[in-house]
Design a protein that fits this description.
The complex is a heterodimer of chains A (290) and B (265). Chain A has one domain: MetI-like fold (Orthogonal Bundle), CATH 1.10.3720. Chain A has helices at residues 10-50, 55-59, 73-103, 108-122, 125-140, 145-170, 173-181, 186-214, 218-221, 241-249, 254-282. Chain A is 74% helix and 0% strand. Chain B is of the alpha/beta class and 265 residues long. Chain B has a single domain (18-260), classed as Rossmann fold (3-Layer(aba) Sandwich). In chain B, helix 5 packs parallel to helix 8 (164-177) and helix 8 (164-177) packs parallel to helix 9 (194-207). In chain B, 42% of the residues lie in helices and 25% in strands. Chain B is globular. Classes of the chains: A mainly alpha (290), B alpha/beta (265). The interface between A and B is medium-sized, with 26 and 31 residues.
Chain lengths: 290, 265
C-alpha cells in the first residue's frame, strides 16, 4: 500500500477538525458549569463567614441573642461525634458487604444486596431519619446522639458498599490467582492482597460518604435533635453544625445569621480537613505506581 | 539374592521417577469438555513441556493440577490427579498449592508490596515464617531466580518499578520461596521480550535440579530448548507424550509431526 492510498482530502480533514473542536468546546463548557457552583459556594461561604470566624467561635458556647460573641463549640464537637458514630456503623458494614458482593458474587443473595443498596442510596435522607426515629428514639424514649449517628451510618452504607465493590472489581483477577496459587487462603487473599490493592479507591469512597453525611440536616431533626449546651453523652440530644446553622439561619437576628455563615464555613473546612487527614494516613506507599 | 535386591531398587526408582500423574483427567466448562481423559505421568526433577495449538487444553490441564478451576463455578473436573501417589484431594487445596507452585502468563507481582515483601508474601500470609530467617530467604530465592544482583540495593521499592522480565523472575522467586516440589508455568515468557525470555529459559533449566517443572508453551523452539519430555495436546486430547527429542525428530503420530513441522497451529 502506498502513501497515496490512505490520503485524506483537505476538505474531510477540515470537517473532522471542526467536529473535534466542537465536541471539545462542549466538554469545556460543561466542566466550567460543574466547577462554577462549587467555587461560588466556597467563596461566598468564606467571604460571609470569615469575618465572624475566630478562635472564640471554635471554642466558645453559643450565647443568647443580643450578647456579643459566642461560638459553636458544642456543635463542632457534636458533628465530630456524629460522624464518628456513623463511621463506626457505616464503614465496616459497607466494606464487608462490598467485599461480599464483589468477591462472592453470582448468587441470588448478592444480587439482592446490590439492588437494595441502589434503592437505599436513592432513599431521601429524611425517610432514613424517620426510620432511626422509629427504631431508636421511640424505643429508648429520647432523642440521642446515638440515633443521629445510626441514621447517618445508614446513609453511608450504600456509598461505601458500592465504591468497595467497584474498586475490588478493578483489581485484576491475576492478582487473586497469584495469591491463591501461593497457598494463601481465600480470606487472607481478599483482606491482605485484594483489599489492600483497592484501598486508595475505597478511601476516596469513604471520604465522599463522610463528606455527604457531615452536612446532612434532615435526618438529624428528629434523631440527634440539637442541644444548646455542651454534651458528650451518646444517649442525650446533641448539637450539630447543620442543625445549628439551620436554626440560626431561620432566626430573625442578624447576629445569628452571621454566626450561621461562620458555622457553614467551619463545616466546609471540617470536611476538607477530614479529607486531608484520612488521605495522609491511608496513603499507600506505592499508590503512585498503580 | 543380589538380583532380587536390584529388582526391588529399580521398582522403587520407577515409583520415584514420577512426581505427578493424572488418570482419565477431564475438565468440563458448562458441560462442554475442554480436556478429555488425559493420562500423563510427569517425571520427577525434570522439565515437561506441554505444546499444542490455541484452545487445545494446555492451560486447562495445567490449572487442574493445582485446583485453580475451583475459582470457575462452571468448571467440573473428573478423574484423578496424584502427587507421589497421593490423591490431591487428600492434601486439601491450601496444602496442595504450597506443594505445587504456579507462574502465570503475565507477570503478576502484588502491586502494593515491595520486592522484598513480594518474595515472602507466600510465607507471611500463610503464617509459616520466623522473622530472622526472612532476609536470608529473600536473598536465596532472588539469587535462585537470577534477580538478586539487579535488585539487592532496592529491595524495599515497589515491585512495579521492575521491568516485565524482572517481574516474572520475581514471581518465580515468590513461588520457590514457599518450597514447592512442583512448579507449573503457564506460558511464562509469552508477554516478555526475547532477552528476558532467554533468561527465564536459563532459569527453568537451572531450576529442574530441585523442582519438577511443567511448562505450557505455544513456542515449539522453547519446548525443544528447555524440556526433557514433551506432551502434545490437540483438541483436548493428549496425542503424544515422549522424550522431547523424539517428539521433534521422530514422532509416532502423524498429527504431531504436522504440528511440529508447522503444517498447522
Amino acid at each position: 500500500m502506498t502513501q497515496n492510498e490512505i490520503f485524506i482530502s483537505d476538505k474531510t480533514l477540515k470537517y473532522r477538525k471542526i467536529k473535534s473542536n466542537l465536541v471539545l468546546t462542549f466538554c469545556v463548557i460543561a466542566s466550567i458549569l460543574t466547577v462554577l457552583p462549587l467555587l461560588y459556594i466556597f467563596f461566598y461561604t468564606t467571604a460571609s463567614g470569615f469575618s465572624h470566624l475566630s478562635l472564640d467561635f471554635l471554642i466558645q458556647m453559643p450565647k443568647p441573642v443580643g450578647e456579643e460573641g459566642g461560638g459553636m463549640a458544642n456543635a463542632i464537637v457534636g458533628t465530630l461525634i456524629l460522624i464518628g458514630l456513623a463511621s463506626v456503623i457505616g464503614i465496616p458494614v459497607g466494606i464487608l458487604s462490598g467485599i461480599y458482593v464483589a468477591e462472592y458474587s453470582g448468587g441470588i443473595f448478592s444480587n439482592i444486596v446490590k439492588f437494595v443498596t441502589d434503592v437505599l442510596s436513592g432513599t431521601p435522607s429524611i425517610i432514613i431519619g424517620i426510620f432511626a426515629y422509629t427504631v431508636i428514639v421511640l424505643t429508648t424514649g429520647s432523642f440521642s446522639a446515638l440515633s443521629g449517628g445510626f441514621a447517618l451510618g445508614i446513609i453511608m452504607i450504600p456509598t461505601v458498599t458500592r465504591i468497595t465493590e467497584e474498586m475490588l472489581k478493578l483489581v485484576p483477577q491475576s492478582i487473586r490467582e497469584a495469591s491463591l496459587a501461593l497457598g494463601i487462603s481465600r480470606w487472607r487473599t481478599t483482606l491482605n492482597i485484594v483489599l489492600k490493592t483497592a484501598l486508595p479507591g475505597i478511601t476516596t469512597g469513604i471520604l465522599l460518604a463522610i463528606a455527604r453525611i457531615a452536612g446532612e440536616t434532615a435526618p438529624l431533626l428528629f434523631t440527634s435533635f440539637g442541644n444548646q449546651f455542651f454534651s458528650l453523652a451518646l444517649n442525650e440530644p446533641i448539637a450539630s453544625l447543620p442543625i445549628q446553622i439551620y436554626n440560626y439561619a431561620k432566626s430573625p437576628y442578624t447576629d445569628w445569621h452571621q454566626q450561621a455563615w461562620a458555622g457553614a464555613m467551619v463545616l466546609v473546612m471540617l470536611v476538607f480537613v477530614i479529607n486531608l487527614i484520612v488521605r495522609f494516613f491511608t496513603k499507600n506507599k506505592f499508590s503512585s505506581e498503580l | 539374592m543380589m538380583e532380587e535386591e536390584n529388582k526391588n531398587n529399580s521398582e522403587e526408582n520407577i515409583e520415584d521417577k514420577f512426581s505427578i500423574s493424572t488418570e482419565n483427567l477431564s475438565v468440563y466448562f458448562n458441560e462442554k469438555p475442554a480436556i478429555k481423559d488425559i493420562n500423563l505421568k510427569v517425571r520427577n526433577k525434570s522439565v515437561t513441556a506441554i505444546i499444542g495449538p490455541s484452545g487445545c487444553g494446555k492451560s486447562t490441564y495445567l490449572r487442574s493440577l493445582n485446583m485453580m478451576h475451583e475459582l470457575t463455578p462452571t468448571a467440573t473436573v473428573y478423574g484423578s490427579i496424584k502427587i507421589n501417589n497421593i490423591d490431591i484431594q487428600e492434601f486439601g487445596v491450601i496444602n496442595l498449592r504450597k506443594k505445587v507452585g504456579m507462574v502465570f502468563q503475565k507477570p503478576n507481582p502484588f502491586p502494593t508490596l515491595s520486592i522484598y515483601d513480594n518474595v515472602i508474601s507466600g510465607l507471611v500470609y500463610t503464617g509459616r515464617h520466623y522473622k530472622k530467617d526472612l532476609d536470608e530467604k529473600v536473598e536465596r530465592c532472588l539469587t535462585a531466580s537470577g534477580l538478586w544482583n539487579e535488585v539487592k540495593d532496592r529491595l524495599k521499592v515497589s515491585a512495579m518499578t521492575l521491568s516485565g522480565g524482572q517481574q516474572q523472575r520475581l514471581c518465580i522467586a515468590r513461588t520457590i520461596a514457599v518450597n514447592p516440589d512442583i512448579i507449573l508455568m503457564d506460558e511464562p515468557t509469552s508477554a516478555l521480550d526475547p532477552i528476558s525470555t532467554t533468561k527465564i529459559e536459563e532459569l527453568v533449566y537451572n531450576l529442574k535440579k530441585e523442582y519438577t517443572i511443567i511448562i505450557v508453551t505455544h513456542n515449539m523452539q522453547q519446548a525443544a530448548r528447555v524440556s526433557d519430555h514433551t506432551a502434545f495436546f490437540y483438541l483436548g486430547r493428549l496425542v503424544e507424550y515422549s522424550k522431547t527429542r523424539t517428539i521433534f525428530t521422530n514422532p509416532k503420530e502423524k498429527l504431531t509431526e504436522e504440528y511440529v513441522t508447522g503444517k498447522f497451529g
